[in-house]
Write a structure and sequence with these properties.
- By secondary structure, the chain is of the alpha+beta class.
- 17% of the residues lie in helices and 9% in strands.
- Strands 1-2 form a two-stranded parallel sheet.
- The longest helix is centred in the middle third of the chain and has 11 residues.
- It starts with 20 loop residues before the first helix and ends in an 8-residue tail after the last strand.
Length: 66
């Protein structure tokens, strides 16, 4: 049994928009106030935000985006 839904539509139609690296870096610097803060990205896609903070975790429903 496959528990991962497949998206039969394009990324744009599915609402997938990937964050440019420079924007991801700026957002993480703005959100993370202390080095010990955690960061959760509930739709991490390719992990652009996750790469800028060591205490981050991401969730992605589409295995092809991850």
């Amino acid at each position: 049994m496959n528990f991962v839904p497949s998206l039969a539509v394009s990324g744009k139609a599915a609402g997938q928009f990937f964050t440019p690296e420079s924007v991801a870096r700026s957002l993480v610097q703005w959100v993370v106030r202390n080095p010990g803060d955690g960061l959760i990205d509930p739709s991490c896609g390719d992990g652009a935000l996750l790469t800028h903070h060591p205490l981050s975790r991401g969730i992605e429903q589409d295995p092809y985006s991850a």
